[in-house]
Amino acid sequence: MTNSTKKLLLITGLVLIVAAMRLIPHPFNFTPVVAICLFSVAVINHKYLKFVIPAIAILYSDVLLEISNGYGFHNGTGVVYLSFAVILIGGYFLLKKVSIKNVVVTSLLASFAFFLITNFAFFYPISAVNNPSLGQYTHDFSGIMASYTAGLPFFRNMLVGDLFYTGVLFGLYSAIQQVPALRFSKQ
User: Are the CB atoms for 11 and 62 separated by under 8 Å?
Assistant: First the structure.
């Protein structure tokens, strides 16, 4: 098995394990999904797999959530997935050089992007996102502010979760790289 194959298997294993952690009870939006996106685009060398592996991990964990709890998929899933696609692409460009500063800043930007995109979608619902239980917002400044205000508790949880899981994934990977027998050469 080549060094690059071992590295890819390790990264994929880490991503899938962390994705499965979504099954553990947690506050809403305190999840590893943004971390999975950022970690994958930063450390996977293959130009397509860096997007495919996190997409599969997110879908895998949503299927597990749907089977176990009945809420892996919902009316807003399309917008949520669109947000993660934006985060993957943004992370790809922002994490060309991995450093603590770049990872933290990119994680914060990703949290903010998710908040802006998803709350705007609920403010200005498309039929696929329209969910009466979420409330209806007037299509004016007060409506968008009401939507963003309603999303603040979820944003706080996401911000903390994103920073936590991003630290866990990048930190664990960095620690593994310090063990000589597990270190991967630059490729």
Answer: no
C-alpha–C-alpha distance, residues 2 and 30, integer Å: 36
Structural domain for 100, as ranges: 3-181
Say if 187 falls within a structural domain. no
C-alpha 61/C-alpha 18 separation (Å) is 9
Nearest to 83 by CA among 24, 25, 33, 22: 33
- HEC-encoded secondary structure of the chain: CCHHHHHHHHHHHHHHHHHHHHHCCCCCCCCCHHHHHHHHHHHCCCCCHHHHHHHHHHHHHHHHHHHHHCCCCCCCHHHHHHHHHHHHHHHHHHCCCCCHHHHHHHHHHHHHHHHHHHHHHHHCCCCCCCCHHHCCCCCCHHHHHHHHHHHHHHHHHHHHHHHHHHHHHHHHHHHHHHCHHHCCCCC
Cβ atoms of 88 and 37 within 8 Å: the answer is: yes
Residue 153 CA to residue 22 CA, distance in Å, equals 18
Q: How many domains does the chain have?
A: 1
The residue with tokens 């599969």 is: 56
In whole angstroms, give the CA distance from residue 183 to residue 177: 5
pLDDT digits (tens, 9 = 90+) for 39-93: 999 999 999 999 999 999 999 999 999 999 888 888 788 899 999 999 999 999 9
CA gap 117, 29 in Å, rounded: 14
